[in-house]
Amino acid sequence: MKTHIEKNTVQETLVIPLYGRKLCTEQFPNLFRDEKAVGLIDRIDYDFSVLEKRSKSFAHRFGALEVAMRENDLMIEAKEYLKDHPRAALVNLGCGLDQTAENCDNGKCTIYNLDLPDVIAVRNELLPESDRIKNVAADLNDQKWFDEIDAQNGVCFLAAGVFYYFKTEDVRKLFCEMAKRFPGGRLVFDTANRRAVKIMLKTWVKEAGITSIADHFSVESIEKDIIPWMKNAHVSARGYMLGYNDLKDPSVPRLFRLMAKLGDGYMKMQIVRMDFTE
């Protein structure tokens, strides 16, 4: 039996990035494959006709590539961490229906997927827990969720498209508390500057009920906007679109590569990595 998801609900926001991963798997298979996303689409009762129509547009094809490159970047960082900490915890913050952590599974790590209770309720239907996979209902700003994570063998946190919803002060507090609680751990997440977030305001940020981005998290420069917070972490960043892959695959239009340069440069789209010091 398929899981039904209504339009104009919070759960609907889970479908859009999932469909993006499916689209990119079909459009750019040499760069990215997420067969789990493709399989999950078939288990959801939802009218995909609008997304299917949009998927033919230039903008939505590039948007799918953005989603895929972000997931690919986070996977590279997570797999690197697991080489040195094979039994670590992989923690997907604001997971939705994303399976990035599962796609990094080395057979030894423990996976935690965290999101708000109504999201986890849907995830439990479609992606139930197993011996090494835990679904945790939590508000990331309520640090009680720290107690759910067994980090004795190391921990790598992944957050894709999450912190734009947060106010800057809340992000600062969360990062500092994570660094204190999880020394030796790693946090990997995406950022963009204020220009990019203003563009986002026209779509998903507005749908989330955010009418002003003045206090919301954006990053122009990690040297100015993040590093001064983090006294006990090493912070580095790479381009979101081209920092891990040059996108010189024949399936990628030249204009997409130009747009990727614009994103990494003018929009300051980055993947930030924090390594919490012991």
TL;DR of this structure?
The chain is of the alpha/beta class and 278 residues long. The protein is built from 11 helices and 9 strands.
Number of strands: 9
Oligomer designation: single chain
What is the share of helical residues?
A: 40-55%
CATH class categorisation of the domain at 83-276? Alpha Beta
Beta percentage is 15-25%
Strand order of the largest sheet: 5-4-3-6-7-9-8
**CATH-defined fold name of the domain at 83-276:** Rossmann fold
> Roughly how many Å apart are the termini?
48 Å
User: What string, H for helix and E for strand, traces the elements in order?
Assistant: EHHEHHEHEHEEHEHHHEHE
State the major sheet: 7 strands, mixed
Mean pLDDT across every amino acid position: 90
Shape: globular
CATH superfamily of the domain at 83-276: Vaccinia Virus protein VP39
Using the 3D structure, state the CATH architecture of the domain at 83-276: 3-Layer(aba) Sandwich
Tally of contiguous helical segments:
11
